[in-house]
Design goal:
Length: 298
């Protein structure tokens, strides 16, 4: 089987075997012959659609080294006999940890204090933190990542409510949270964190009407998909939030220093790195190789 791995950085390159490339599908050399390639692996940097997949005339398998598949034209792949596989879990705990990194960086003023520290001022005044113990955490999406977040929240002594169209009653009993409707979660939560895939039903689910019913001083964390949040509505109501921690953005591939959210002191943005740890990179490579090897055996 002839395989090419796209969107590969230096860390992942340590573990993946064969032809690895840092470029995305959009940047492939049009003069190169890909007719003998049986399988490719990609990440969200690549848009797998008719235009980018056309050169791969013999492609049988596309592996995305992600959980989400919204960067892939699944209909086109199905029509052209291309099997699509994703990695369901490469370490949900890594993303859950980043949720709390974003959360604590704001609630305990870790970022806000740095300008004073750098200027030589060492004072607690004006930096009253928000304790997490006893606060209500609203978790939207109780898949693997959402449940890992709940486990950490329990360790902090937080109360937890959750919303999901598919209710995991076994996890609810084990972890001691309650399912509520989305509007009730928005009304009662001190912290809201998003862990759902991007679907037609979830696109811009955090919109003007939902934001309006949230508590004043609420904290919003998004490590899932940027398009879950209506950015314009967030900007218009930014004063509602004590803190906003975003690892993903709407249209993040076009991000620049002029992004409108950068001007707000109560917003921190990280560049889609919640998944990216020493443990997860190794697991991603292992899972990618496993999927490819299973396909070869078949």
């Amino acid at each position: 089987m002839h395989i090419i791995h796209f969107d590969v950085d230096a860390e992942l390159n340590k573990y993946l075997k064969g032809d690895t490339r840092s470029d995305s599908l959009q940047k492939i050399d049009a003069s190169e012959d890909f007719s003998q390639i049986d399988a490719i692996s990609i990440k969200t940097g690549s848009n797998a659609d008719k235009s980018t997949l056309r050169p791969f005339t013999n492609l049988k398998l596309l592996v995305t080294r992600t959980v989400g598949m919204d960067h892939i034209d699944l209909q086109y792949c199905k029509a052209n006999g291309i099997e699509v596989k994703n990695i369901l879990d490469y370490g949900a705990s890594n993303i859950a940890e980043h949720v709390f990194a974003l959360l604590l960086s704001g609630t305990r003023n870790i970022i806000a204090t740095q300008p004073e520290i750098q200027s030589g001022t060492f004072s607690f005044k004006g930096h009253l933190g928000m304790a997490l113990k006893g606060k209500m955490l609203g978790v939207i999406g109780t898949g693997r990542i959402g449940l890992e977040v709940i486990k950490l929240a329990n360790a902090f002594g937080m109360k937890v409510v959750a919303f999901d169209v598919y209710k995991n009653e076994e996890a609810r009993k084990e972890l001691g949270f309650e399912y509520v409707e989305l509007l009730d979660l928005a009304k009662t939560s001190d912290v809201i964190t998003l862990h759902v895939p991007l679907l037609d039903s979830t696109k811009q689910m955090i919109n003007k009407s939902i934001i309006k019913i949230m508590r004043d001083g609420v904290v919003l964390i998004n490590t899932a998909r940027g398009e879950l949040v209506d950015t314009q509505a967030l900007i218009e109501h930014i004063g509602k939030f004590r803190w906003v921690g975003l690892d993903v953005l709407e249209g993040e591939k076009a991000f620049s220093k002029d992004h409108p959210l950068l001007k707000f002191e109560n917003v921190v943005i990280t560049p889609h790195i919640a998944f990216y740890s020493d443990a997860s990179v190794k697991k991603i490579a292992e899972e990618t190789e496993r999927i490819l090897n299973e396909s070869i055996v078949q």
